[in-house]
Amino acid sequence: MTTDMPTFMPKEAFSELSLRDKNAYLEEVTAEYAKANNLTVPVLDKDALSRLRRFYLRRSFADLKLENLPDDDLNRTLRRMGEQIMGKEFTKGLKRAINAEIPPSSKVNRAPPIDDDQLMFFVPSIYDAPLKDDVNLMDVAPFSLSKTKRDGIIRYELKDCVITIEGGAESGMANAYDYDIFLNMVSYLAEEVRRYRAAEKKGLKPSLPSRTYRPTVAQILKFCRRGNGGKQYLEMENALDRLQATRIKIVATDDHSRRREAEAFTLIGRYRAVSHTSTGRLDVVEITIPDWVYDGVVTPDASKPTILTLNPDYFLINKPIARFLYRLARKAAGQTDAWYTLKDIHFRSGAQVPFHKFRHTVELIIKASRRDPLPDYDLELRDGKDGPVLYMKRRQVLTDERGQGTFLDVEESF
């Protein structure tokens, strides 16, 4: 995205405008900025206009102390210099203020990294893990949809159980991008199980997969289809902190036996991080795979669902809510279609924003997906008797010359 800003009038001229003209000017400036940066042009409501007016009038040249000096050439020059100096800072601030009022970018998916053509050498398949009985982590968001730190608890009251997600006091809750590391861990384990079963069929006596995963940070970034910049390395340890501190608790009740069962676990177990002392750049990590993941993938039983493959383009979805919608469609629609009321989806997402804002974001994602579609599924909002309904349908699978589908859709049971 560029950082273009339209030319703006001085504060003094803006302050002399009528309220109506101030609002019209701010709407014009915001529209110019949005178009210059390929953003959706917003409709500024009363509150948004009020916030932008306050910001515009807040900038001051008080530090230059020019207000009470004579209006001579020297002070006029100083004032012009002040306008230029403060103008740069004001432009940055106004850009941030306008961005806060503009809906999310129209792009659903980000571009893949430069070296992404080597992906298949590193990522044979991507899996999501089973959870417990008929409950799956794909039924709800097991992570925060916010990019900023989220405290508190997410509580999901489902038909037969209550699921709560809670983050650490210092680190907060794992977010949608931290969860990529979890998917990397599950996929590694699933691949090890595949090799284990293949060796067994050949009459060999292989060892069960290790409960410890030791990847390099470069391997994780490659799997998650991220760039290899220094910021990615520095953020990795923070992401591991959030994953290790995020606790999932399930309380299930059985009306027939009048029994209550509670179980709690974290997304990852103990971890160890090795970094270079000169740069602080993380190099290798060691993650203990928690028992609930290990048992569900390595030694599944009939009562647990199979793990599901995900499209590798999942990692290119650049909005947490869009990622949640894809996961929900993958679990519910599968090869066909499914629908949920938008109120139910709002609840299952754990989103903190009010329902009307959540609905607006979903509408923008659906609109943008017509040009930049989500992997595998088409989304449509329909009218329902209890409000809008999100209809999710599996897109027709393209085939190659051999008649084979281009999307991995095998439900693995090993």
Describe the structure.
- With 414 residues, this protein is α+β, with helices and mostly antiparallel strands.
- It folds into two domains: 11-101; 116-324, no CATH class.
- It is 37% helix and 17% strand.
- It has helices spanning 11-15, 19-36, 46-58, 73-101, 179-201, 217-223, 230-245, 291-298, 320-332, 342-349, 355-369, and strands at 126-128, 130-132, 135-136, 153-157, 161-166, 212-213, 247-254, 259-266, 271-275, 282-288, 308-310, 337-341, 377-382, 389-394.
- It has a four-stranded antiparallel beta sheet with strand order 4-5-7-8.
- Helix 3 (46-58) packs antiparallel against helix 4.
- The two termini are 45 Å apart.
The main β sheet shows up as: 4 strands, antiparallel
Portion of residues in beta strands equals 15-25%
- Strand order, largest beta sheet: 4-5-7-8
| Termini gap | 45 Å
Which stretches of 5+ consecutive residues score pLDDT under 50? 60-64, 119-124, 131-135, 399-414
Q: So what's the overall shape?
A: globular
> Radius of gyration over alpha carbons?
26 Å
Which class do the helix and strand fractions yield?
Answer: alpha+beta
| DSSP, total strands | 14
Order of helices and strands: HHHHEEEEEHEHHEEEEHEHEHHEE
Mean pLDDT across every amino acid position: 78
Query: Structurally, how many domains make up the residues?
Result: 2
- How many helices? 11
Instruction: Work out the helicity level.
Output: 25-40%
Write out key terms for the chains shown.
414 residues, alpha+beta, 2 domains, four-stranded antiparallel β-sheet, three-stranded antiparallel β-sheet, 11 helices, 14 strands, globular, disordered C terminus
